[in-house]
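Hey team,

Filing this mostly as a record. A colleague (T.K.) asked me to run one chain through the structure pipeline before their review meeting, and I want the input and output archived in the tracker in case anyone asks later how it was produced. No errors, nothing strange. Just documentation.

Input sequence:
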Amino acid sequence: MNIKPLADNVVLKLTAAEETTKSGIVLAATVKEKPQLAEVVAVGPGGIVNGNDVKMYVEVGQKVVFTKYSGTEIKLDNEEYIIMRQSDILAVVE
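Output structure:
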């Protein structure tokens, strides 16, 4: 199935959360935080959103950092995605 976001929305595929700390301690599934790093898999066209002209700055394939409690989580074909507005993306990781 293909996801095509509308307006200034972006579809992100979550990266796997780290399961061990830097010192080698294995974390239980209940302790792990939701990752804030994801890969862009689809980008909306931008355009006029709420009366403002929105230019899309992210591109498919980029790794991005987003705000902690943003977006709508969906599961499609056994993969987890988040759909959010571009304004909830904080940075591009290069």
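Quick notes for T.K.: The chain is about 0% helix and 45% strand. The mean pLDDT is 87.
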